[in-house]
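Holo prediction — IPE.
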Amino acid sequence: MSELVNKIPEHVAIIMDGNGRWAESRGLPRLEGHRAGTENLRQIIRASVEFGVKYLTIYAFSTENWGRPKDEVNGLITILETVIDRELNELNAEGVRICHLGRLEAMPAKVRKKVEYSMHITQNNDQLILNVAWNYGGRDEIVHAIQKIIQASVPAEQVTEALVSKNLFTQGSPDPDLIIRTSGEMRVSNFLIWQSAYSEWYVTPTLWPDFNKEEYKKAIDAYGHRKRRFGKLDQ
Ligand code: IPE
Ligand code: IPE
Ligand code: MG
């Protein structure tokens, strides 16, 4: 463990990238990488509680990921179902509240019901808020917010940044303090494009299935040394 840092991000968001490359480099099918990535999540959730992170948002499936081969998409849906079945009771017992970000209605009914059930039974937990972005896109989220605002007949002059934030899927979570992207890609890929206006970024070449607690601690430590200015000057 490295030295203690006193600045812990309240909200960490992770683009869990590199599962496919992890599998391909081992001569395995891509889905094996997704399975390994899901296994890895357990230690990162637990470490979040240990480090004092209050909100953890994970990017699991983007609106663009529907464009992948059918087998991979179906495999990812099955993995989501399996992981809910397997982990829900334990996560609930540990005080994790599960929230979903994205359009639930476009997901197959069986998995949608599982996601809804997991949100329902964990709704009073507050040890860690776990936002799972599945069928999530930042642009789609903004379109969805605009639709809701128009449906509520809000007059134009009453449309504020606060109102837009309130209508996003992340409503109830503060903006992310730290966004981690694994696998070295330096792009946003449609993740939290509104909420990340002043987030700190941390990109590591480590592929997601290899991103362990130690690597996570390095990211938290790096955040602890950042100077956030929000467009102003240092105090
Ligand atoms: C991230 O891993 C998980 C999803 C997008 C579902 P990838 O599947 O994108 O892995 P790479 O980028 O091809 O290595
Ligand atoms: C972003 O990764 C989406 C998730 C991690 C779920 P992608 O692999 O889909 O992003 P691109 O295509 O490299 O930008
Ligand atoms: Mg990728």
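READOUT: Confidence is low (pLDDT under 50) at residues 1-5.
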